[in-house]
């Protein structure tokens, strides 16, 4: 079909249309199955439109028919899908028909996806999605987001896949699209089945079954039952698998749906294979193979061919088994399908071992072992990522709920803030506890495969350091003030102190709450950056305003220590940076200077204009630091924390967080310090040039 495609493009529209009519005629001969009725109807409508005297290829109805026909041919002749989608794309661009263009890009994306070129698939899906969002077409948006999430799943990026499905579920609920709700939940179930988390997969399948009951479409229900049968077969629950697959086969045969019927026959063959009934397995595999001869579905053919190889191996037909295994192996490597390659390599290893071709057996065993190690190393990462993504999604929804509730009254705001702190504490504790349990399991494996999994060992150490750092901060800087706050409330509740005595503690409580808030702000910012969740959004910002706001915010602490804070920044000190991140940097540096400057000291902030950036300095008359300390304070792995001149506490996160925030904004940070004379911290940020102003 690629030669036909190139040939058609070289002719004018009139001749090209006639050639495409010939293609439709050829396809009609090759697909006599009853499912082709819809395809024939589309072809007839296209011929009718072309026969009209006033035929215009830019007619939106004609473009829609081309796209619909391409979609119908996807699993039967993939090259025809590409031809029709490109034809529709050219006409849509000429007609400035955005929906037709989006649908054409969708067809091209499906072509590249099925050919195993997921990078191109993602590129075209993304272009189509941009147009769908411009059109505000929820049905098209849902279809594209679902397919885009599927591409990330094929690449093994289950976090993006799951996030895409969950986001689409919210849209589907909003527009009450029950069919897409069914599809999206089923795709999430398939993700968990891929991870061999069968319990979670079956939970989602149960959700899908309830949705399908409301839809009342037996074909949709049969598709779900086929997927469930595959999961039951993998779990060893063969009676459940056989019941589900027999029910779905009946529906597919009645409706003559070839692609799903081929899949159902293959699952029934797999169920017999699990029972070691090799002849029956081959019977159903052969039924599926006959249907696949008229399909164009490489990904769906891999499990079929490998299953036939295993069945023939069970019957000791080693040569035939090798033939099918090699075909499956070739397709898997062609479309870079690692799990398929792993299964085929294992089968080829057993075949060559039986034939006593130990060199070939060793070769395939090494391939199998390498892929097993790769998948094994990635499994826990993927599972954790999926869990974190799901928790983050739920947490975002809870944040929105809290924000709405906080608008009701000021008093309710304080209650919600306290609940938010407790919730964050619980979530962090839960994730750390879960990470610790997973780490123990991984450590046992590391004892067995220390040399092979050296890289994993390094990653686990980093996770452990993060956990220890979180525990240290929570234990030393949060638990104490919170415990004191709880104790005081208990005394007041039990009437061991009266209201007057309680009010005398308010200044102390305010100081503790300010410390908790400052610590949590740094902790959450650092935690978000460690999980690759911090996004830098630069814009034009006035540095003098950020400095003044933080001086005012920390003025009470400065007054208590009789420290004078002076800003020498001139008006219009404009920078191109993320306002929130630079605010964190300035606040931490001033707070740090206050901590280590004795009473009656001075803190001075300046801004020096350079060629393309501002150089900001925070100078204090504090106790200073030695050279060794200066070299360590910005280290990510360092946890240097000391008490200030008035025994002020710190988290050890401030300066490493400052370094990360400055570097995210394209700047650098350093320190000059002398013992008993003071310290000066410098950092740079890009100037807001005319180029940036145009970008804004």
Describe this structure in words.
The protein has 29 helices and seven strands. The protein has helices at 2-9, 13-30, 37-51, 60-72, 78-95, 98-114, 118-135, 138-154, 158-175, 178-194, 198-215, 218-235, 238-255, 258-274, 278-292, 298-314, 318-334, 338-354, 358-406, 410-448, 454-493, 499-504, 506-530, 543-553, 555-560, 579-596, 627-632, 654-664, 690-695; strands at residues 539-542, 564-567, 574-577, 602-609, 613-620, 669-674, 678-686. Mean pLDDT is 81; it is low at 1-32 and 691-696. The chain is α+β, with helices and mostly antiparallel strands and 696 residues long. Helix content is 74%, strand content 6%. The radius of gyration is 32 Å and the shape is elongated.
Q: What is the count of helical runs? A: 29
> Structural class of the helix and strand makeup?
alpha+beta
In round numbers, the mean pLDDT is 81
The residue ranges in which pLDDT falls below 50 over 5 or more consecutive positions are 1-32, 691-696
| Cα Rg | 32 Å
* Oligomeric nature of the chains: single chain
Count the E strands: 7
Shape descriptor: elongated
> How are the strands of the largest sheet arranged?
2-4-5-7-6
Question: Which bin fits the share of residues in helices?
Answer: over 70%
Q: Describe the largest sheet.
A: 5 strands, mixed
- End-to-end C-alpha gap: 48 Å
In terms of DSSP E residues, the strand content is 5-15%
């Amino acid at each position: 079909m690629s030669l036909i495609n190139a040939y058609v493009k070289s002719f004018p529209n009139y001749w090209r249309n006639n050639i495409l009519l010939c293609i439709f005629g050829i396809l009609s001969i090759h697909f006599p199955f009853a499912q082709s009725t819809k395809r024939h109807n589309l072809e007839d409508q296209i011929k009718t439109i072309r026969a009209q005297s006033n035929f215009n290829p830019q007619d939106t109805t004609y473009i829609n028919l081309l796209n619909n026909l391409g979609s119908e041919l996807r699993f039967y002749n993939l090259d025809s899908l590409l031809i029709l989608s490109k034809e529709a794309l050219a006409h849509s661009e000429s007609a400035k028909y955005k929906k037709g263009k989006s649908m054409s890009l969708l067809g091209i994306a499906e072509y590249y996806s099925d050919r195993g070129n997921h990078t191109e698939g993602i590129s075209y899906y993304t272009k189509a999605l941009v147009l769908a969002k411009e059109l505000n077409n929820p049905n098209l948006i849902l279809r594209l987001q679902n397919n885009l999430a599927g591409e990330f799943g094929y690449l093994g990026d289950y976090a993006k896949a799951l996030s895409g499905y969950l986001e689409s579920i919210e849209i589907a609920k909003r527009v009450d699209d029950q069919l897409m709700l069914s599809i999206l939940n089923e795709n999430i179930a398939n993700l968990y089945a891929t991870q061999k988390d069968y319990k979670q997969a079956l939970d989602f399948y149960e959700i899908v079954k309830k949705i399908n009951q409301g839809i009342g479409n037996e074909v949709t229900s049969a598709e779900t039952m086929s997927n469930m049968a595959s999961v039951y077969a993998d779990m060893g629950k063969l009676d459940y698998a056989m019941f589900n697959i027999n029910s779905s086969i009946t529906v597919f045969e009645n409706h003559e749906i070839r692609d799903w019927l081929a899949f159902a026959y293959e699952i029934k063959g797999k169920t017999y294979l699990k029972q070691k009934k090799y002849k029956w397995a081959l019977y159903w595999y052969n039924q599926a193979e006959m249907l696949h001869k008229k399909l164009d579905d490489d990904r769906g053919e891999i499990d079929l061919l490998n299953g036939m190889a295993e069945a023939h191996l069970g019957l000791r037909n080693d040569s035939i088994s090798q033939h099918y295994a090699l075909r499956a192996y070739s397709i898997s490597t062609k479309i870079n399908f690692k799990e398929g390659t792993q299964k085929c390599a294992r089968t080829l290893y057993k075949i060559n071992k039986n034939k006593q071709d130990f060199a070939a057996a060793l070769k395939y065993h090494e391939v199998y072992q390498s892929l097993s190690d790769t998948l094994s190393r990635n499994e826990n990462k993927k599972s954790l990522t999926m869990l974190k993504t799901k928790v983050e999604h739920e947490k975002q929804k809870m944040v929105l709920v809290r924000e709405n509730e906080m608008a009701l009254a000021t008093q309710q705001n304080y209650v919600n803030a306290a609940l938010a702190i407790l919730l964050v504490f619980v979530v962090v504790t839960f994730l750390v506890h879960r990470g610790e349990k997973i780490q123990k399991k991984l450590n046992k494996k590391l004892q067995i495969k220390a040399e092979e999994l050296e890289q994993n060992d390094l990653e686990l150490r980093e996770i452990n350091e993060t956990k220890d750092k979180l525990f240290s901060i929570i234990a030393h800087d949060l638990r104490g003030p919170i415990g004191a706050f709880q104790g005081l409330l208990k005394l007041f509740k039990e009437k061991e102190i009266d209201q007057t005595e309680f009010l005398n503690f308010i200044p102390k409580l305010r100081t503790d709450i300010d410390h908790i808030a400052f610590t949590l702000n740094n902790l959450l910012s650092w935690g978000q950056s460690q999980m690759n969740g911090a996004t830098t959004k630069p814009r034009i910002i006035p540095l003098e305003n950020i400095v003044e706001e933080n001086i005012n915010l920390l003025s009470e602490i400065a007054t208590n220590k009789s420290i004078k804070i002076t800003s020498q920044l001139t008006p219009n000190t404009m920078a191109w940076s993320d306002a929130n991140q630079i605010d964190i940097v300035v606040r931490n540096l001033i707070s740090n200077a206050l901590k280590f400057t004795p009473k009656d000291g001075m803190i001075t902030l300046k801004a020096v204009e350079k060629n393309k950036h501002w150089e900001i300095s925070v100078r204090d008359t504090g106790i200073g630091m030695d050279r060794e300390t200066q070299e360590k304070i910005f280290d990510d792995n360092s946890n240097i924390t000391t008490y200030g001149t008035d025994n002020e506490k710190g988290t050890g996160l401030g300066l490493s967080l400052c370094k990360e925030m400055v570097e995210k904004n394209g700047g650098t940070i350093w320190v000059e310090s002398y013992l008993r004379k003071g310290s000066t911290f410098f950092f740079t940020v890009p100037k807001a040039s005319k180029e940036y102003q145009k970008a804004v």
